[in-house]
Design goal:
6-stranded mixed sheet; single chain; 4 domains; 24 strands; D-Maltodextrin-Binding Protein, domain 2; alpha+beta; 7-stranded mixed sheet
Length: 598
């Protein structure tokens, strides 16, 4: 080729530049310029060509950036990452972190929830969710529940969790020597081991909400079986537990008096439902809510186990926290003791008059604001069988005075303070309301006192230490009217509160209410497996009990749980008990990362 090239006469039409270009082409093996050649391109481009090339390069970069951004947004997502510590303040201190006694103490119950697994847990709406249960089979007669357990759960010491542990826990729970408060829930229930991962519960009578009771923690048989009932309270495992839950014990710190001040749990890397994101949860304990709030305001806590509605204003940096208002099956009511020698409360018209004299909406606004909801009966709106049938009497002081006048109570002359009280046979109408010393209930009681006294009823408030109330007042039924919060569970079963068999010292029928028709409805409903029929029975029950007015139903207030906004992943809408705030703890996280979508 070079031979032919040099034969071309340069003088006849070829300029020197053209000859140079063709010479370079002839000598280059690669027709595309290399990096060394490209760096000389500016010497061959005009000013206009350089501007065009720069503009094209800029457009190319913008295009590539847009393509990358589109790919990033379409194919990457923000997800939770592992790491970090959550510090929660709790009022009280741990004593017995074992599932058989944990329900007695809210602190024990909360820590137990993190350390132990249970047959069932609950989802974000409070509905039952399999935990250790892999499969449930219920016999047609509703008396036999056969449960297949997951086979990949391990205790924190590495041993496998099996049916032996479930049977041991249940049998210990039923043994009266161990004094578990859960024992009363399982009268007439037997358990047997079918195989290493299957257990069978047998009931004497059908009980539709039975699975609702199986949310207690399972204990390791190998560690507890040799601990006698008498040594049980002294066992080290009460404060240094070994469970199979998402978190395991790391350490605790006590003051010189032996009081536990801090309690640290670390993530269980081998948890069968997946490792939690938070590396550590530390609990700090306080004697009262005021000290806990002070620590929160000083930045020493990330959350509070509970915040009274009346204390919301005490949070100084409120914008830094999420105030989770969680539905909880609990209500506040005034319970009339129908079994006292004083026959005033035994008269329906008298009870109805007190209900008419109570402005529930005004009390709610004064004490809570817009948080709680008014309720008209013992079945709450969030319960599956609820139907809006019951209606409370509207606030009507004129009608209340009319009913009282029919019973012989009329306004007397004003006293030295200028107050005119209702009287009968020269006896002033005076009532005593008994209540625990919680700030919310005291505020409600003061509001009721003000309203009833405006009507002419003299009211005394008997405020009892919350810790002493059950033993000294409730068991003895030593009250005339009791202002109290009642927890009823996710399943409505009102049997424990309204069946006549529960009116004694060991029951929870706080009014001593007895009605044969209601007893029959409650007994039938708890054994009815058909949801529609069960709902109809409860509607009849509610209609009857509200007509009898053994109580004034006031409010169902949400459980207020406080967390710093830096804690992400909390999704609960409802809890059955305060410790259920940890139901979705696996999703809580402080850190996040990007990853490709799959």
């Amino acid at each position: 080729m070079l031979k032919n090239f040099f034969r071309k006469p340069a003088a006849n039409g070829y300029q020197q530049n053209s000859l140079d270009q063709e010479l370079v082409k002839a000598l280059s093996k690669n027709r595309l310029p290399g990096l060394k050649q490209i760096k000389y391109i500016r010497k061959f481009l005009s000013g206009r060509e350089k501007i065009i090339l720069a503009a094209c390069g800029l457009l190319l970069l913008i295009g590539l950036g847009y393509l990358w951004s589109s790919f990033y947004n379409a194919n990457l997502q923000t997800v939770a990452d592992d790491g970090g510590e959550y510090v929660e303040g709790m009022v009280g201190e741990p004593q017995y972190i074992n599932p058989l006694h944990a329900p007695i103490n809210s602190v024990d119950a909360a820590i137990s929830k993190l350390v132990y697994s249970s047959l069932y847990t609950r989802d974000s709406n409070g509905n039952l969710l399999n935990d250790l249960v892999q499969n449930l089979d219920i016999s047609p007669d509703g008396k036999t529940y056969t449960i297949k357990l997951t086979d990949d759960a391990r205790w924190h010491n590495g041993e496998k969790l099996t049916a032996d542990d479930v049977v041991f826990t249940f049998n210990t729970l039923q043994d009266p020597q161990f004094r578990s408060p859960l024992r009363l829930n399982f009268g007439g229930v037997d358990i047997e081991k079918v195989d290493n991962y299957t257990v069978r519960f047998t009931l004497q009578q059908p009980y539709a909400p039975f699975p609702e009771l199986l949310t207690f923690g399972i204990m390791p048989r190998s560690l507890w079986q040799d601990v006698s009932p008498f040594a049980w309270p002294l066992a080290e495992l009460n404060l240094k537990p070994i469970g199979s839950g998402p978190y395991k014990f790391q350490s605790l710190m006590q003051d010189k008096n032996g009081n536990v001040k801090t309690y640290a749990l670390i993530a269980n890397d081998d948890y069968y439902r997946g490792r939690p994101h938070l590396d550590k949860i530390t609990c700090r304990f306080f004697p009262d809510q005021n000290e806990a709030i002070a620590a929160l305001n000083n930045g020493k806590l990330d959350g509070l186990n509970y915040l009274a509605w009346t204390e919301k204003k005490a949070i100084t940096a409120a914008n830094s926290f999420n105030f989770h208002e969680l539905q909880m099956p609990e209500y506040t009511a005034l319970f009339f003791n129908l079994n006292q020698e004083d026959d005033r409360l035994s008269k329906l018209k008298f009870r109805q008059a007190l209900a008419l004299a109570t402005d529930r909406e005004k009390i709610k606004q004064e004490v809570y604001g817009n948080g709680p909801q008014l309720i008209n009966g013992p079945i709450l709106p969030q319960n599956p069988v609820y139907a809006p049938q019951a209606k409370a009497a509207a606030y009507n002081t004129g009608e209340a005075l009319k009913l009282l006048a029919e019973l012989g109570w009329n306004k007397g002359e004003a006293d030295a303070e200028g107050k005119s009280w209702l009287k009968k046979n020269n006896q002033t109408l005076a009532l005593t309301i008994t209540l625990p010393d919680t700030e919310e209930l005291m505020a409600i009681a003061e509001a009721i006192k003000k309203q009833w006294e405006a009507l002419g009823i003299k009211v005394e408030l008997e405020i009892i230490n919350k810790k002493d109330l059950t033993a000294s007042v409730i068991k003895a039924r030593a009250y005339s009217i009791l202002l109290y919060n009642v927890a009823v569970g996710h399943d409505p079963d009102p049997y424990p509160v309204w069946h006549s068999s529960q009116a004694g010292a060991n029951g929870f029928n706080l009014s001593g209410y007895k009605n044969a028709a209601v007893d029959k409805l409650l007994s039938s409903a708890r054994g009815e497996l058909d949801a529609g029929k069960r709902q109809a029975l409860y509607q009849q029950f509610e209609a009857q009990v509200t007509a009898d007015q053994p109580a004034i139903w006031l409010f169902s207030q949400p459980y207020l749980y406080l967390q710093n906004k830096k804690i992400k992943g909390f999704s609960l809408q409802a809890v059955t008990a305060p410790e259920d705030r940890f139901n979705d703890v696996l999703n809580w996280h402080l850190k996040e990362k990007k990853r490709l979508k799959f």
